[in-house]
Design a protein that fits this description.
Elements (H helix, E strand, L loop, with lengths): L1 H47 L3 H29 L1 H19 L5 H16 L1 H12 L2 H12 L1 H19 L1 H22 L17 H5 L2 H32 L5
Helix pairs in contact: 1-5, 1-6, 1-7, 1-8, 1-10, 2-3, 2-4, 2-5, 3-4, 3-5, 3-8, 5-6, 7-8
């Protein structure tokens, strides 16, 4: 019995590690995509004579799609399961990453980034759902913090691997990104289970959505995140362009 218990614990650890690594891979790609567009728009603007307003549209419509899908993405993860939404999100982003590297029209750039944002919107809430379903409550915050740390990894990949591909040809960057998203989707398909693997006690009490969005803590956190993201994504999106235009720095 003791040997069997040890073997089960070993299998469980390997399974948990696979889940975490798969979710981390997807998160890294998500943040790589968010960061890489700020560099890609520099050669794109030169190739297609785009002004700041037009490149701003390309970046803004991504966040519009992302914002619109965030709440429905969480709802879908609850309804059909985290794994399905994770794979659907990664598949959609992969498809539109390949498409972004293939088109040559401002309207198509805007539309494709909008739908890529839709794909992105389903990933973060589904990761939270997957963590909640597969790990005990005393481990969830720690696991979530490990996964969220990959936002930095995604940024590093965007401004090293992504930037070098963009420097050669910006289309290569998005073809490469689409391939990496495809690999991430396969990893999620292999390692993330469909159903909960841990004994999680779920409360049967249902809280109406109106009560959630009117909660003081939710409102305060919403405003705090909104103000933070104004600074974060505004800076991240425009700083490379400013450095290139004002100081003549190369992409690399």
């Amino acid at each position: 019995m003791e040997v069997e218990k040890t073997m089960n614990q070993t299998v469980e650890k390997k399974s948990s590690l696979g889940i975490v690594l798969a979710l981390m891979a997807g998160y890294s790609m998500v943040y790589m995509d968010k960061s890489m567009i700020s560099t890609a728009v520099i050669p794109m603007a030169q190739d297609f004579n785009l002004d700041a307003g037009q490149t701003g549209l390309i970046m803004s419509f991504f966040f519009l799609g992302y914002s619109l899908m965030q709440i429905p993405g969480g709802w879908l993860a609850d309804k059909i399961g985290a794994k399905k939404v994770l794979m659907l999100s990664l598949g959609v982003i992969s498809l539109f990453s390949f498409a972004f590297g293939a088109v040559s029209s401002l309207m198509l750039f805007v539309a494709i980034r909008f739908f890529a944002g839709i794909g992105h919107g389903g990933y973060p809430p589904s990761v939270t759902k997957a963590v909640a379903s597969n790990f005990q409550p005393d481990k969830r915050t720690f696991i979530q913090s490990i996964i969220l740390s990959t936002s930095g990894i995604g940024g590093i990949l965007a401004f090293t691997l992504g930037t070098n591909l963009i420097n050669a040809n910006w289309r290569y960057g998005y073809l490469g990104l689409g391939g990496l998203f495809l690999v991430s989707m396969i990893l999620v398909g292999i390692f993330v289970p469909k159903d909960a693997t841990s004994d999680v006690t779920v409360s049967s009490k249902k809280i109406p959505f109106s009560q959630v969005i009117s909660d003081r803590n939710v409102i305060v956190l919403f405003v705090a995140m909104l103000l933070l993201n104004f600074l974060l994504y505004g800076n991240m999106s425009w700083l490379p362009t400013i450095l290139a235009q004002k100081f003549g720095l190369s992409i690399t």
